[in-house]
Amino acid sequence: MGYLYLVLTIILESASIVFMKLSNGFQNKLHFTYSIVTYLLSFLFFTLALRYLSLGWANAVWAGTSAVLVALIGIFYFGEKLNAVQMAFMALIIVGLVGLNVSGND
To answer: Does residue 106 carry a pLDDT above 70?
Structure first.
């Protein structure tokens, strides 16, 4: 159950960041409201995930996965660009996530 809660946390937090972008600096109140709601839900699910998963591991997976997911959404949906150095560091985040998952969540 902890992994499901963590996945929901990652999806909702990433959606919240996308809604922040779509709010256009608070100009679009509806998207800003969605951002607040999805962020609150992400905290709710993260709190539930922590009943099953270790704190450090879960937080690292949440932060890293969300960072990569938001960057990919930025590239494919908003047409943002990453330079070679940024892509290399994004790859290091992915390597770190793989390492965390291979080593377990104890």
So the answer is: no
